[in-house]
TrEMBL record:
This is PASTA domain-containing protein. Residues 41-108 form the PASTA domain. The chain crosses the membrane at residues 12-34. SMART domains: PASTA. It comes from Flavobacterium endophyticum. The keyword Transmembrane applies. Keywords: Membrane, Transmembrane, Transmembrane helix. InterPro entries: PASTA_dom.
Length: 203
């Protein structure tokens, strides 16, 4: 086949199109690589936003050309001022592109309320995990005469008597009045002495 016929043949055009396709793909890959390496040098380090107010977050991120999205409030954390950032995503130190959104959650204004469980006539061993599971704390423990040792007789919070079903703030201290377990023995001993005295014959 002569050169002139080959240049006008279908085989030549197929190979030409294939070569052009390969060139286009290579150019595309090269441009993507250049774009990545160029942007890579412009990455921004995410700052630590914890304990900042929403206004402070906005000002700080504006300086870095980043944005933020407030997702939610979380249960009050006494280690953070109210209405300040408790959690963020991405975390501090992460590398992000220009204009990236930073998602934050802020602290509530105060502890939420929880319902006081029914612990009356439950043992101290049963009462403690029930209170801790609700985020409550064990306060003072006082004792008074009662047959059941370490049996819960009363509950108090901030000096006031509370009952099952009442609402108290999470992290409140619950003071417990417990049985000392001695009254049964003392009464039994007193009854025995009395009965023996009553049955002794008169001289």
């Amino acid at each position: 086949m002569t050169l002139g016929k080959y240049l006008t043949s279908k085989s030549f055009f197929k190979q030409l199109l294939l070569a052009l396709g390969i060139v286009v793909v290579l150019v595309f890959i090269l441009l993507q690589w250049l774009s990545y390496t160029t942007d890579h040098g412009n990455e921004i380090t995410v700052p630590d936003l914890k304990k900042l107010t929403e206004q402070q977050v906005e000002e700080k991120l504006d300086e870095l050309n980043l944005e933020y999205v407030l997702l939610d409030t979380v249960d009050f954390n006494k280690d953070f001022p109210k209405y300040t950032v408790v959690q963020q995503d991405p975390l501090p130190g992460a590398k992000v592109k220009d204009g990236r959104k930073i998602y934050i959650k802020v602290n509530s204004a105060d502890f939420g309320l929880v319902t006081v469980p029914d612990l009356i006539e439950k043992t101290l061993r049963q009462a403690e995990p029930s209170l801790l599971a609700l985020g409550l704390e064990i306060g003072k423990k006082t004792y008074k005469p009662y047959l059941g040792k370490d049996m819960v007789l009363e509950m108090h919070s901030n000096g006031k008597k509370i009952k099952p079903g009442d609402k108290v703030k999470k992290a409140s201290k619950i003071d417990l009045v417990l049985g000392d377990g001695k009254v049964g023995f003392e009464e039994s001993e007193a009854d025995t002495i009395k009965n023996n005295t009553d049955t002794e014959p008169a001289e």
